[in-house]
# Entry
Amino acid sequence: MTMNETNVKGDRIVDAPEIESMHLDDRVDGPAAAVMLSAGIGIFVLGLLTLLAEANVSIHDFLGELEFDKGVGPLAGKTILASAGFFVSWLVLGLAMRHKEVDLRRWFWIAFALGVIGAVLMFPPVFQAFASE
# Structure
């Protein structure tokens, strides 16, 4: 096997006899794609909730009530719901993709795009532009 050979998915195969001697089982990529996409969804939800809390007073007040009167700050409700979004999407996607072989690169870039959009929505000049008066 040479360094220029590729497998079915187009990944370059590297000759590594020390890894081959470990007799590792091949695994599907679906669960890894599910957790990457769920992370992107969680970041996007956090960014969206940050923007919505600035744009709408009732959403802001609702998210403030999720603080459970512990005084942890204005992000408490947002992070609780973003974490719930991550875990629920991970559960659903993980079950849906657990036996599937997928293109990890494509799912990585989708998750990355969601994460970038979520991060931009959390950037103060962006969410403050939507602030209600």
Q: What stands out?
A: The chain has a mean pLDDT of 85. The two ends are 66 Å apart (CA to CA). The helical segments are 17-20, 30-55, 57-65, 76-97, 104-121, 124-128.
